[in-house]
């Protein structure tokens, strides 16, 4: 209830900024303004995840999308650097799909790629920010990120959430951990190696 109350207030306060960003995206990139994608939430329940669009849909001659780095626009880069592209997720929090703090919701395709331990990240609601985000964000490997997610599940408390929110503001101000090396975003998670393959 606290999440939803704060999200409602935040949406009202940020509504002028949301409108300005939407106009900037429409002017520089056209439609769509919002990036909407199914993502798994608590217990793997699928919901519609919202962000501002930061990349175009440009394709190569074969009809395949160009790499993220080439499709990322100057407006999109600014939105990512300032994390303003995440603001539409306030609507997800208001709807009850997400919390302000929790493991980040990832692709539905990843659900069958997690190890049983990694899948525990879905024992809580996903968040706009989380323990992995303040400990490296997209500079972490997938395995490191999931360890932080599961640690959060096991150690959750209100004070930890407040700490994460404060550290998130610091990270956003410093613009740290935005991109994975050589990628505009995080590279695709292919699944963790099985124990036998690591011997």
Number of domains: 1
| Helical amount | 25-40%
The outline comes out as globular
For the termini, the CA-CA separation is 47 Å
The chain-level mean pLDDT equals 88
Regions with little confidence, pLDDT below 50 for 5+ residues: none
- Quaternary: single chain
Write the H/E string, N to C: HEEHHHEEHH
Output the strand order for the largest sheet: 1-2
Radius of gyration: 17 Å
Beta-strand level of the residues, as a percent range? 5-15%
- Tally of contiguous helical segments: 6
Number of strands: 4
Q: Supply the helix-strand structural class.
A: alpha+beta
Largest sheet: 2 strands, antiparallel
Write structural notes for this entry:
- The protein is an alpha+beta fold.
- The chain has one domain.
- 40% of the residues lie in helices and 10% in strands.
- The strands form 2 sheets. Strands 1-2 form a two-stranded antiparallel ribbon.
- Helix 1 (2-29) packs antiparallel against helix 4 (89-95).
- The longest helix has 28 residues, at 2-29.
- The mean pLDDT is 88.
In short:
By secondary structure, the chain is an alpha+beta fold.
List the helices and strands and how they pair.
Blueprint (H helix, E strand, L loop, with lengths): L1 H28 L4 E7 L5 E7 L15 H4 L2 H9 L6 H7 L3 E3 L25 E3 L12 H14 L2 H17 L25
Helix pairs in contact: 1-4
Attribute tags:
199 residues; alpha+beta; two-stranded antiparallel sheet; two-stranded parallel ribbon; 6 helices; 4 strands; 10% strand
